[in-house]
Amino acid sequence: ASCKLVHLEVPIDRWVRFLELLVSARPSLKQLVIMPREMIGADSIEIAVGNIVPYLEDTSNTAHKAIYFDGTGGLAASAVLRAIAQDPPPSLLKKFDKIIHVDCSRWKSRRALQRTITQELKLPRLIMDVIDRQDEEDDFRGIDEGLRAEIGFVGREILRVLMGQKCLVVFHNGSDNTIELNDLGIPQPDQWFVFGSKVLWTFRGRLRLNPGVSKKVDDSHLFLYDTFSLYGWNYLLELEAREIARYTDNLGETVEECCLYLLSLNCQGGNIMDYNWATHASNYWVCDGIIQGGHGDEAWEAAAALHQHINIEDYSSNALPSFGHELETPSKRWILVKDNPVVHPESTSFFLAAVASESDPPLRSLPDDMFHKSDKLRVLKLCRCTFSFSSPPFRRCRSLRFLGLDSCQDQRPEEDEKQDIWIF
User: Fold this and answer.
1) How many whole angstroms separate alpha carbon 64 and alpha carbon 83?
2) Which of 108, 253, 306, 370 sits a CA distance of 20 to 30 A from 314?
3) The CATH fold of domain 36-226
4) What sign does the CA torsion over 112, 118, 119, 123 have?
5) d(CA 374, CA 371)
6) 226-284: pLDDT as tens digits
7) Cβ atoms of residues 305 and 350 within 8 Å
8) Angstrom distance (rounded) from CA 130 to CA 135
9) What pTM was estimated for this model as a whole?
């Protein structure tokens, strides 16, 4: 069907009413309702806090009661929320009777969320005992932790404590969906207009950069965001890494380098190379030498712990953050190659993608001297290559710690029995 645009002199309030009628008549037209979005300056934590606080202080009838902050390109949102909750400006302390900080950026279940709220409010031990007993019963019944729902009695106690108070709830939501906080005992902001309460929340945190998750924010929430920082993307990544480091032991600045490793390689070609981050991210960090340990399995344990505190699943779908190519990374250290397989002496991780092809890509023959200057190479993954398995071109890479072979074939299988087998 064709459409013709006709200009009509109709008051704006009548157009708004017409749209409301359309939406009520055809639920599928709800997508026409545009979420209120405002870009704010968030170059640093201090600047972001200063620009968000006025929205929180506005408790007029027309002000938004629920405010979502998406950070800058998805970064540093968690750090900004933590700063507001833990070091609120005096004006917020005067405005609200209670500031409730709920960090569930590492999602477990709605029950765990209710437990966190109970702990934050410092409710009597009796309330926590109710949660403990229900968890023990669910353990016995074999109910998966992720399926455990909130408890009605606990919710009523939370509501009783908060009744009549002006509250600011700062919520790090690590789930895949928006959460109705009133189900857990915290009334929704639109039920609080008499008391002037607010909710400030985010889906972001723990390097959660999936662009699709922010589309799940309810249209009634004010959506705040920024698109860049004058201090650069590495600065924002540093803020994100500091937040993640709070949950780890003794990794400190190493967390930032691990995040940079993941984002750098993913940006170079996460859509053509299966890094299998969900399985191998921690292996890469240790084998590349980013995470180093003192005795025994310390490095592996630290890497595994960090793995649990980052939203690695966002990268299993090869989602590429928009800012990845703007990050400053160590030159030639972490490399993905698809056309000209040149290995630099500085490279510590080298990934060779399959030859581009519309159908099955052809096998690539590796020259025998390809890695003759790769003394620093520690991580190597080859896709659809042929070489001598008994005398591979990387046999002299004395620092090699991780070897991944995907659909590779022996170049001279008939000579295997006549040559000494190369031992890795």
Assistant:
1) 21
2) 253
3) Rossmann fold (3.40.50)
4) negative
5) 5
6) 999 999 999 999 999 999 999 987 788 999 999 999 999 998 888 889 899 999 999 99
7) no
8) 9
9) 0.85
Angle 123-308-214 from CA coordinates, rounded to 5°: 75
Q: How many CB atoms lie within 10 A of CB 107?
A: 18
CA–CA dist 141, 130 (Å, integer): 17
Q: What is the dihedral of CA 207, 213, 215, 217, to 10 degrees?
A: -90
The total of other beta-carbon atoms located within 10 Å of residue 380's CB is 24
In angstroms, the first-to-last Cα distance of the chain is 66
Rounded Cα distance between 241 and 207, Å, is: 8
Q: What are phi and psi of 351, to 5 degrees?
A: -120, 125
Q: What are the sequence ranges of the domains in the chain?
A: 36-226, 255-319, 330-424
Q: Which residues are paired to 115 by β-bridges?
A: none
For 300-310, the pLDDT digits (tens) are: 999 999 999 99
Partners of 104 in the beta sheet? 173
Three-class HEC string of the chain:
CCCCCCCCCCCHHHHHHHHHHHHHHCHHHHHHCCCCEEECCCCCHHHHHHHHHHHHHCCCCCCCCEEEEEEECCECHHHHHHHHHHCCCHHHHHHCCEEEEEEECCCCCHHHHHHHHHHHHCCCHHHHHHHHHHHHHHHHHCCCHHHCCCCHHHHHHHHHHHCCCCEEEEEEECCCCCCCHHHHCCCCHHHCCCCCCEEEEECCCCCCCCCCHHHHCCCCCEEEEECCCCCCHHHHHHHHHHHHHCCCCCCCCHHHHHHHHHHHHHHHHCCCCCCCHHHHHHHHHHHCCCCCCCCCCHHHHHHHHHHHCCCCHHHHCCCCCCCHHHCCCCCCCEEEECCCCCCCCCCCEEEECCCCCCCCCCCEECCCCCCCCCCCCCEEEEECEEECCCCCCCCCCCCCCEEEEECCEECCHHHHHHCCCCCC
